[in-house]
């Protein structure tokens, strides 16, 4: 039987990682000499550390409370640059449009891209626009790439977490995923919750000021939610992680929606939230710096790094459970 | 009635230009402070001219004689960088995959991306993979972005053509478009012709050596073919252009296919062919440099720039006709 791509291969979970590690990376071969790629890559040129990143956006619906596909596409790429402590210099934007899309929708998305880029302080310098026939795409896909420059004195990487590091989170989780799902399915939760999409580079700049090289790892929580991000970091850094369930900031509407839908908020997507792994001596200073920014006003410490073991959650009653990586899709087309 | 996106809006012709100028660029607003964007944008950083470019690939079929969607995605972005006299430093690649695509197809495309990148001497430094449900995309779309560095002593731009400039072309036209169309429709011409997809940056490096700042404009001939490229350059440079029909290198199988299909080879897509606008005193030296490379072995002079007027073709019998920009689509999903 022919092996085929499944929806779960796009989840950001275990199937995604398998597809990348067993199909896409081996395909690249010598074109990716360093092995597994990071979400944003450092390219050293004439003494300045440049950073490149790309993401494709296929969110359904195109418009939802708190944002739209254009805003996501700008913030997502700005944020993947920021996770390498890079400030954005320039963005590119490509559209794949299905024939028949109302021009007004495209106009709204382009205006969102423009407004989000201006707000993030980064120009859009070049673009591309392709149109495919009816039924060959679902309305509109937006793909951004970004060039950034790394701040001096910081070098966070997915492989940088160390035993003893404090695990900090910049704000509440689950808002984006619940908003998109609820809007798509008409569940009504979107009256009480909106996407958290926002650029995180200014927050990161303040964290770098406070923490410098003590900022070991930064990661924005996207498709696979907090659980996938923690598992990816644990694997890349070869460490264990322990999280306090009671410390996790889950807004009440997200908690209610997750209960009704049978979802775990730790797996729900976010678009404006990061985790930071920080050397213990610098954790308080970094947390204070985060709390003094609008994006990090609700930042809290949620856990600690162990020298080995799985990603564990300690519940309120003191028991521990493993917070595993999902195999496949929790919610398709969430970003 | 709702205005809607038409297939022709993706043609690279007049409708494409209208969509970009009237919808997409006004949307970007202050995020695109310099007005119309170029295919690759120069970003000045710490004294070195960096260049960024992006293109989305939606070609149908995915595989065809001479290449596939992965090869195109690498060459297309390398070539848009090269048109600004930039050598590629790093690429990003994003896939949008339709659920159900055979994994083997994805493996082949990833291997093509890898092999093409290695052959062009550029690493793929980061990527993204999204999956959408059956019917929400047509098999596979590939989106690349590229970072390059401009060679010193060259600054070609679409607005740089000057009256008196020689118009040079690097090789035969029409092969890519006829190959893809014929493969898709099962017309049989693909037995005699293959896509011309190839990287052009090494050719450009030799041209820069020979011509330097006398290289006023470089343009690769993609979707809209030679005719669209010449019209875009004429508009951006505010000049007229006159081409000798008899000088146009049209391979015999392309000529035969175009006659049977009622196509004009000047509008058929290419993926490995460029036009150069060169100050008259440097034209012979640049042409000689082109001819000494594999990519430019069949380079010829095809015309001259006038100080105003349309893009004209002088036919063998001495009459002149206007080579206009097509309104919409000649061949959809050709790249
Ligand atoms: N097609 C690909 N080829 C090579 N590497 C890839 C490909 N797609 C993804 N990757 C790599 O896999 C890792 C995980 O990518 P992923 O897209 O899940 O991260 P992300 O961009 O932070 O998340 P999201 O896309 O949800 O915003 C990244 O380091 C990325 O560079
Ligand atoms: N969505 C967009 N927003 C802003 N500018 C755009 C957009 N799409 C295209 N452009 C600009 O329009 C111009 C023409 O783009 P086009 O894609 O036709 O050029 P190309 O990449 O050389 O051709 P091809 O895509 O056929 O390879 C470019 O300068 C590009 O930057
Ligand atoms: Mg991302
Ligand atoms: Mg990320
Ligand atoms: Mg393009
Ligand atoms: Mg191009
Ligand atoms: Mg081009
Ligand atoms: Mg990604």
What can you tell me about this protein's structure?
- Two copies of one chain form a homodimer.
- The mean pLDDT of chain A is 95.
- In chain A, strand 3 (63-64) and strand 4 (67-68) form a beta hairpin.
- The first copy, chain A, has two domains: 38-150, 2-Layer Sandwich (60s Ribosomal Protein L30, Chain: A), CATH 3.30.1330.10; 166-322, PurM-like C-terminal domain (Phosphoribosyl-aminoimidazole Synthetase, Chain A, domain 2), CATH 3.90.650.10.
- Chain A has helices at residues 14-28, 69-82, 103-120, 175-185, 201-211, 225-237, 252-261, 283-291, and strands at 40-45, 48-57, 63-64, 67-68, 86-98, 124-132, 140-150, 166-169, 215-220, 240-244, 274-278, 300-306, 311-314, 320-322.
- Chain A starts with 13 loop residues before the first helix and ends in a 13-residue tail after the last strand.
- Chain A is 30% helix and 26% strand.
- Chain A is an alpha+beta fold and 335 residues long.
- In chain A, the strands form three sheets. In chain A, strands 9-11-8-12-10-13-14 form a seven-stranded mixed beta sheet. The first copy, chain A, has a five-stranded mixed beta sheet with strand order 1-2-7-5-6.
- Chain A is globular, with a radius of gyration of 19 Å.
- In chain A, helix 2 runs parallel beside helix 3 and helix 5 packs antiparallel against helix 8 (283-291).
- Chain A has eight helices and 14 strands.
- Chains A and B meet through helix 1, strand 1, strand 2, strand 5 and helix 3 of A and helix 1, strand 1, strand 2, strand 5 and helix 3 of B.
- Residues 39, 55 of chain A line the site of one magnesium ion.
